[in-house]
Q: What sequence folds into this?
């Protein structure tokens, strides 16, 4: 019996952790404005205003993704979003006297079958076309054409 004791507690804790994460994922998915089948979320993620987020089928959100969805964020089917990606549909009016009173919202639309690399940043008002690839660390400030590969800061088509 003593030989089994060292493995019992770690296995129990592992099962409890997996169960809790499944409950967290289910609760989060239930808050989305729309959610397709087969969505995968690797916790932890931060999603502000999930009721403004539309997620297609078979989308993958990896750990440490942050989404600010107040202005509306739509993610198309079969899209892969790597870890530490930031997507925001919210910004501030640079002409305002107080930044705290000047929130501007602009929707973000990410097409089908898009790949977004680790640490990329998608800014408000951007549309990313179907089949595009966003390189790791890219800062997307303008629309991306379907099938384009963009890299860099600011993101530009790869030469």
A:
């Amino acid at each position: 019996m003593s030989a089994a004791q060292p493995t019992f507690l770690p296995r129990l804790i592992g099962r409890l952790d997996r169960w809790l994460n499944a409950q967290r994922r289910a609760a989060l998915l239930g808050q989305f404005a729309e959610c397709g089948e087969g969505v995968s979320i690797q916790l932890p993620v931060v999603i502000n205003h999930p009721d403004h987020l539309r997620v297609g089928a078979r989308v993958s959100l990896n750990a440490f993704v942050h989404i600010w969805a107040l202005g509306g964020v739509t993610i198309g089917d079969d899209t892969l979003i790597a870890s530490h990606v930031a997507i925001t549909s919210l910004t501030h009016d640079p002409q305002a006297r107080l930044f705290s009173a000047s929130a501007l919202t602009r929707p973000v639309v990410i097409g089908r079958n898009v790949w977004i690399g680790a640490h990329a940043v998608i800014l408000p008002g951007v549309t990313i076309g179907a089949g595009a690839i966003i390189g790791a660390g890219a800062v997307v400030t303008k629309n991306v054409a379907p099938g384009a590969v963009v890299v860099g800061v600011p993101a530009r088509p790869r030469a």
Summary: The domain at 31-157 is CATH 2.160.10.10 (UDP N-Acetylglucosamine Acyltransferase; domain 1). The chain has a mean pLDDT of 91.
